[in-house]
Amino acid sequence: METRFQRLFLSALLLGIFSITQPAFAQDEGSDEDELEQVITPDIKRRHIKEDDLDTENFELGVFYGFLSIEDFGTNGVAGFTLAYHITESFFVEAAYGTSKTQKTSYELLSGGVELLTGDQRDLAYYNVSLGYNFLHGQIFMSDKWTFNNHFYLMAGAGNTDFAAKDYFTTTIGAGLRFYTTDWLALDLSMRGHSFEHELFGEAKRITNLESRLGLSVFF
């Protein structure tokens, strides 16, 4: 009887001690978690950056000037304009028109008075329509406050070249870098290759005129 009473007394005593100490343990565990959160949570001051979106207009009108290397007729200045429609962010269609005036050939210069072409026949004009593809979209960081969008592009198309009083079917390929100075104004640094076949000197000959140019375009 006494042994049973001692067992009940010890059980009640242990139960009382456990009920008293359990809230203290829970409180200590919660305080440890709060201290841990204060230690691992960094105090970051985020910098808010505002980026201008490009205009939603899909049309682009541009002018350009550069140099056109015409086989047998030297390197000459070329000027013109472009009109493009952006189908999507990646694809666009561009129509271009350019004019140039060729120099005399080396044969004409060395022969003295031989004129292979008249003055009007030395004028060259071309027009073409091309499909372009934009890729490698990125940004150029000029300073901490100035960032400009840019991308590369490839294009291919066909058109016509008017030279020496004749028209020649011409295929065109090109590549360039478009640099957006504002949300509606862009600079265009590019190269083109215009390929056609002519018979100016008595035999059929396929030539490729290389063109490098700098353009300025607006979106509307």
What does this 3D model show about the protein?
- It is a single chain.
- The protein is of the alpha+beta class.
- It is 20% helix and 52% strand.
- It has 2 helices and 8 strands.
- The chain has helices at residues 2-40, 106-111, and strands spanning 59-69, 75-86, 91-101, 123-141, 147-163, 166-180, 185-198, 205-219.
- An 8-stranded antiparallel β-barrel has the order 1-2-3-4-5-6-7-8.
- A hairpin with a 4-residue loop joins strand 2 (75-86) and strand 3.
- The protein is elongated.
- The relative contact order is 0.16.
Search tags:
single chain, 220 residues, alpha+beta, 52% strand
Shape: elongated
Main sheet overview: 8 strands, antiparallel, barrel
Unreliable stretches: 23-27
Q: What's the pLDDT, averaged over the residues?
A: 81
Percent range of helical residues: 10-25%
Order of strands across the biggest sheet?
Answer: 1-2-3-4-5-6-7-8
Q: What series of H and E elements makes up the topology?
A: HEEEHEEEEE
- Radius of gyration based on Cα positions: 38 Å
- Report the span from N to C terminus: 103 Å
How large is the share of residues in beta strands?
A: over 45%
Structural class: alpha+beta
- Total helical segments: 2
What is the tally of beta strands? Answer: 8
